[in-house]
Amino acid sequence: PFLGLWLVMGLGAAGIGFSIMHDANHEAYSKNKYVNMALGNLMNFLGANSSIWKLQHNVLHHSFTNIQGADEDINSPEFLRFSPHRPLKPIHKYQYIYAWFLYGFMIILKVLYTDFKQAFHYRDIEIIKTRKEFNKLVMKISFWKAVYFGLFFVLPFIFMPVSPLMILLGFFLMHYVVGMCMAVIFQAAHVMPETSFPAPTETGKMDSNWAVHQLMTTTNFAPNNRLLSWYVGGLNFQVEHHLFPNICHVHYRKISKIVEATAKEYGVPYHTIGRFREAIAEHAKMLYMLGNEQKMAA
After folding, report:
1. pTM, full prediction
2. 221 forms bridges with which residues in the sheet?
3. pLDDT at 298 over 60
4. 165-199, pLDDT tens digit by residue?
5. Burial degree of 34 (CB within 10 A; 0-12, 13-18, 19+)
6. Fewer Cβ in 10 A, N or C end of the chain?
7. Three-state secondary structure of the chain
8. How far apart (Å, rounded) are the C-alpha atoms in residues 253 and 225?
9. Which of 3, 2, 16 is nearest to 178 (CA)?
10. Cα 52–97–14 angle (5° rounding)?
11. Terminal Cα-to-Cα distance of the chain (whole angstroms)
């Protein structure tokens, strides 16, 4: 029962991230910027830093979706290959098997290490432009990490009448569940056989405009599954989210009909997969393809 409660907390934390924090950090949850700010900062109580997330997700992922070297959602460790433009290594042959196990580690690494690493990286590529801004960000990350570990790690050690090992296992299990939920939902939206991985020209330009690029690189899944849509905050409608990131997810279902009809009218892609389990299978297929052959952009 004790570990089961940690698992439930993991599912709840992922749901908060999907349904509340995500919209709020896109300034889409409310018309009031202070409400968005307050709810977006819930991410700090989930262990990850909201300021870093905005840079990674809002700035880089939404601007450069599926572009190798720019979209940090596909800039994976060397033992994973999420883009056909990345060098193929022998170990990638088996990523369709081991990737699922590694997905669960995504959030625990972010909590412990990745937020700090990204802060230094964003300073180096000049997304963070001044030393003052960088120092302020590192201090914010450090402060919220201390708060988070105090609440979810130190206090259980002090007050829980269980062994330290059980607390460590529960803490890890909660983060593993969150990481798995997050990874599966976001990977099933972009690393798919149907999506493209466009590369810029020698002059750094893209062949398609921004809106068409989002349609080429993104897919919806399980659009009729209302329970899933509720839990993931409408992120099964990733096409609509990428086209209208500042609109609250509760409108995506209705917007999707307009977007699909417009895409067909202009002859541009509108990717959608009927069921969630089919989307998971398609992502597994894509992992296999990327690990065994050079799938190139459409």
Report:
1. 0.91
2. 273
3. no
4. 999 999 999 999 999 999 999 999 999 999 999 99
5. exposed
6. N
7. CHHHHHHHHHHHHHHHHHHHHHHHHCCCCCCCHHHHHHHHHHHHHHCCCHHHHHHHHHHHHHHCCCCCCCCCCCCCCCCCCCCCCCCCCHHHHHHHHHHHHHHCCHHHHHHHHHHHHHHHHHHHCCCCCCHHHHHHHHHHHHHHHHHHHHHHHHHHHHHCCCCHHHHHHHHHHHHHHHHHHHHHHHHHHHCCCCCCCCCCCCCCCCCCCHHHHHHHHCEEECCCCHHHHHHCCCCCCHHHHHHCCCCCHHHHHHHHHHHHHHHHHHCCCCEEECCHHHHHHHHHHHHHHHHHCCCCCC
8. 11
9. 16
10. 35
11. 49
Structure tokens at 284: 């597994």
Q: pLDDT tens, 109-131? A: 999 999 999 999 999 999 999 99
